[in-house]
Amino acid sequence: MRKTYINGLGCISVQETFDTIFLEKAEINENDTILPVKTPVYKDFISPVAIRRMAKGVKNGIVASAMAMKEANVSTVDAIITGTGMGCIEDSEKFLKAIIDNKEEFLTPTSFIQSTHNTVGAQIALGLQCKAYNLTYVNGSISFESALLDAKMKIEEEEANIILVGGIDENADYTTSLFKLAGFIKRENEGPYKVLNATTKGAVYGEGATFFVLENEKKSTTYAEILDVEIINKLDVNEVESKCSAFLEANGLQVSDIDTIVLGFNGDVEFDPYYKILSENSFKNTPQAFYKQLSGEYNTASAFGLWVGAKIIKTQEVPEIISVNNLEKPAYKTILLYNQYKGIDHSFTLISKC
Predict the structure, then answer these.
(1) Which CATH number is associated with domain 225-352?
(2) What DSSP line would sit under 235-279, residue for residue?
(3) pTM for this predicted structure
């Protein structure tokens, strides 16, 4: 069975994760409940004519994918697989608002055409003139992991050699207001909004696009090997440790073999115990990292988490800004990532140095 290597990365997020090495310009914002994306210079990647018609999620996805392909030194791919929770929600809102404002008459189709969840994958394919396998997974907070698992299986089964995989989500005003009403987002005027040891419900929300070029061959640009991905729909808090141990054992590993665990803490006091049980028990003597204090919470934030894990292996450091317990190891070879959202859609991802 062939191996799967991460050979290129591209990340557009609420931090300056482009034109940097690894979070040296990152800042923690504990005052706002919604974190806007930091945008690159779009016209360096997309023609100004096309930019006008694109929502930010589409633009960010195109730029992040271009960065990943440039780093991996590839010009075409055998498959494009994306994951998104809310899709191009900004254009969906525009179209629905136009229906109401115009009383269902004289509607322009642009926002409707651009509002589908697979718009990002389609626009990337159009730009590359790529007519290969193109699939978008819309599966809540495991949308990205579903795409990653599909890509890994295609490489293992020798159905593709080079695959572009990404996770994309964007914020939109009306949807955000609904999330606030539902209690998904932290209440205003309750800051500072700390992620670790939080005492309130909800999370600080963000947005972003993170892409990876996966190949079956190791290259000079290789970050890490993807060893395994597992998705579990529902778990009780007291089941997490046993499921984690079983996942490691299936890969011939033990807790002591993990050099860093990357956890998806988001500051929701109701559901962060899923992470705490690993942090305070099985992995209490293991270096721990967290990332949603930088990225914010969104359906495909775990793609940002994988970007963090890959960078740790490449740079052989865990920056202080993402360290949970300030423990260190002389080398970071094997990293475990764990994420969940509101107690469902749990994922374990295992990567290693090649």
Answers:
(1) 3.40.47.10
(2) --GGGHHHHHHHHHHHTT--GGG-SEEEE---S-TTTTHHHHHII
(3) 0.95
